[in-house]
Design goal:
The chain is built from five helices and no strands. With 120 residues, the chain is an all-alpha fold. It has one domain (28-115). The longest helix has 17 residues, at 2-18. The radius of gyration is 22 Å and the shape is elongated. This is Cytochrome c domain-containing protein. It comes from Chitinophaga rupis.
Length: 120
């Protein structure tokens, strides 16, 4: 009986100690609070796209017609498909790139750049 109570007590302590009452808040996606003061160059954004996207999104066989092989093609795609791009790449629910979402700072920068009209 003592062994049984000891095991239940240890189990209760283990379960209680593993709970996290202050869980980390989920990533809410890009924040644009300081976007007005940021200067994000197109070369920076396109460099991110080249390193993370053009392996799959390039040429005539690009999925969903999302050819990012040049900055102009990338801009044209985003202009015509902004909501989809934001959802798939820079939102909290982003599923692109498939090997893992971009970091929050990078997503925020891309979001800011798009919000400002994709300047040079």
């Amino acid at each position: 009986m003592k062994t049984y109570l000891l095991l239940i007590s240890l189990l209760a302590v283990a379960v209680y100690s593993c709970t996290n009452k202050e869980a980390i808040a989920p990533d809410s996606g890009p924040q644009t609070g300081d976007c007005d003061s940021k200067q994000i160059p197109a070369a920076y954004v396109y460099g991110i796209i080249q390193s993370n996207c053009t392996r799959c999104h390039s040429g005539a066989t690009a999925p969903a017609g999302a050819d990012f092989s040049t900055l102009e093609k990338f801009r044209n795609f985003v202009s015509g498909n902004e909501a989809t791009f934001r959802l798939r790449v820079i939102s909290a629910q982003a599923d692109m790139p498939p090997r893992g979402a971009l970091g929050a700072g990078i997503r925020d920068s891309i979001n800011c750049w798009i919000s400002k009209g994709m300047p040079e």
